[in-house]
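= Paired protein data =
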Amino acid sequence: MAADGKIEALRSVSLFSDLRQRDLEQVAQLADEVDLPAGHVLMREGETGSQMFVMSTGEALVERGGREIARLGPGSVLGEIALVAEGPRTATATLTKPAHLFVLAHREFHSLMHDIPEVRDCVLEGVARRIREAEPDRA
């Protein structure tokens, strides 16, 4: 995808929609793009996480302990908890539809979290929301 197309695709994702143009350009430089088929496992519960995924298109089934906990679609962020906590994946995510994703590896993720406060705030709010949803009686 051309740089302008990539920036516009990133802008359409809620995590990045309020970013300034120069911040979007930085995200575009750091994020890789991949197209993956239905059935592809993005992450497995318990494994070490080294990437975060942002879905531009597609759908993923998220399971914990073999039980469905969510279905995520365009604009969803997956894998950020393992990168924030630097621990194992908390769930397994499998694509149920072909997907176009932006991928941020560990180093690039932490660069964005450090350099762009708006991205850090959105990611941390998303992590907190997932914790509340997963264990409402403990959050």
User: Anything to note?
Assistant: DSSP finds five helices and six strands in the chain. The chain has one domain: 3-134. The mean pLDDT is 85.
